Amino acid sequence: MTAAIAAEGIRKRYGDIQAVDGVALTIETGEFHGILGPNGAGKTTTLEILEGIREPDEGRIELLGMSPWPRNPKLLPRIGVQFQASAFFDGLSARETIHTFASLYGIGPKPADAMLERVGLTGLAGTRAEKLSGGQAQRLSIACALVHDPELVFLDEPTTGLDPQARRNLWDLLRDINAEGRTVVLTTHYLDEAEILCDRVSVMDHGRVLKTGAPATLVRELDETVRVSVESGLVTADAVRDLLTAAGADATSVEDDGVSLSVATRTPAPVISVLADQGALRGLEVRGATLEDVFLHLTGREYRA
Ligand SMILES: Nc1ncnc2c1ncn2[C@@H]1O[C@H](COP(=O)(O)OP(=O)(O)OP(=O)(O)O)[C@@H](O)[C@H]1O
Fold first, then answer.
1. Whose Cα sits closest to atom 26 in ligand 1?
2. Among 234, 247, 242, which Cα is nearest to 278's?
3. Which residues form the ABC transporter domain (predicted)?
């Protein structure tokens, strides 16, 4: 696979703030890549530099094999940039908005209407863009970014501020966009979103990429214990401890807080088997580490979006 984006040594300073401090990134063609980090980590600035709408102080960037800065007209039809919903033109309906974006690329009204249909907004085509709900407005802004059928799409925090159902609906749309073969680069401060959607994530903090990898790989590399828990009262913690020792199973701790009995272990299978033998599987949950633990490990502090 050729890289859709290759960037090295990107730096950007605003006055005293070093917003981006030596970022290197390689994003493969067809990849769903998440740039993940708390507020102020430098995600948006990095994204804008990759898109070619902001000039870096330093660094080398290849976007689809070309330099995005100064603005490269050959790249514009090949990339889609989602504008924040607040950037819609005043007073235009959803249909007029997407027709306006389409006309900028020489695209006619038919494909624009088809794109509106694709994001489920045909029924709201006559509604003024500023009257749409948060999720509808995000879908319209994504439709505008896709109307010219770009091969690479940039999305800046597309689900921020949406309710859980609207977020899930948007995830389905984003998955489909990627499944069609488009490279998708998204910034997010939601760890669960990155874990669910992205092939690989770059974890950013203080203007730097701390680590890049598949979410599952980053989590696995932590070598954290898995927590197996069942309802309290089915079997005692002492009995479980003895049975696990007899079975030679690894158990870092066995605790019962009156609601759940939890076993921290690196080998969940024999633990579940011991609990099953006791008929004590009601309420079974197996929870591993998450990207939150990865962030904690990389930065030494709890993740706060
Ligand atoms: N145009 C600007 N002028 C001055 N400072 C800026 C500008 N844009 C961003 N910054 C600062 O640079 C740092 C990185 O901001 P950036 O928006 O890139 O981070 P982010 O990770 O996208 O954060 P958020 O999730 O809040 O959007 C922050 O400290 C921010 O205040």
1. 39
2. 234
3. 5-231
